[in-house]
Design brief:
Layout: H1 3-23, E1 25-35, E2 48-58, H2 63-75, H3 80-83, H4 88-112, E3 117-122, E4 125-130, H5 132-145, H6 148-161, H7 164-174, H8 176-180
Antiparallel strand pairs: 1-2, 3-4
Helix pairs in contact: 2-4, 4-5
Length: about 190
């Protein structure tokens, strides 16, 4: 593969990533529950089992959503040295017990985005109040429906859609040391 082919492949990859970030990603989970049949006789009959597919979308997060996601990511910890022990499965089970709810909450926060807040207008000011009930319900749903293989795919996609690269580049551009540092010459002495 020559230089032009590598450059073309890189441009295609970046174009696909930009498209994914712009459109967001969708995923679905199957939810199974029981309900009574409607009407008076439904009270006396056996409940029916219903399975339905719910579709969710993850969009590029706002700065507030990215802040919440980052706080959750920083709470998670993994000790790589313990994963090499002879008690690998014991360690993995312990980590699953500690981190499963946090991972489900990450997915819920990514799906909710700004819908996490109830926004009201009070005297010309927009007041945002977190809706913890909505977050808890969605977290519980994902905790009970998302499989580990789906979680790996979602983790990769949520990280890509979060667009951390553009966020870091924005910090670099706005950094005070970048424009006020005298060692950073704009023009080369002639």
């Amino acid at each position: 593969m020559d230089y032009n082919d590598k450059l073309e492949a890189l441009e295609r990859e970046q174009s696909e990533l930009r498209q994914m970030i712009g459109e967001g990603i969708t995923f679905d989970v199957e939810v199974t529950y029981t309900r009574r049949k409607p009407g008076l006789l439904g009270f006396f009959r056996k409940r029916e089992k219903i399975t339905e597919k719910k579709v969710f979308r993850v969009q590029e997060p706002t700065l507030a959503t990215l802040d919440r996601l980052s706080a959750l990511w920083l709470q998670m910890s993994i000790d790589e040295t313990k994963l090499g022990d002879e008690d690998y499965f014991k360690t993995a089970k312990k980590m699953a017990a500690q981190e499963a709810r946090k991972l489900a909450q990450v997915v819920a926060v990514a799906v909710l985005g700004e819908d996490y807040y109830d926004v009201t207008d009070k005297g010309g000011y927009l007041v945002r109040k977190p809706n913890e009930t909505r977050l808890a319900r969605l977290t519980s749903l994902f905790l009970h429906t998302v499989t580990p293989s789906q979680l790996l795919t979602l983790a990769i996609l949520i990280t890509n859609v979060s667009n951390l690269g553009d966020f870091i580049n924005s910090i670099r551009l706005m950094s005070a040391t970048r424009t006020s540092d005298p060692t950073q010459l704009i023009e080369q002495p002639g």
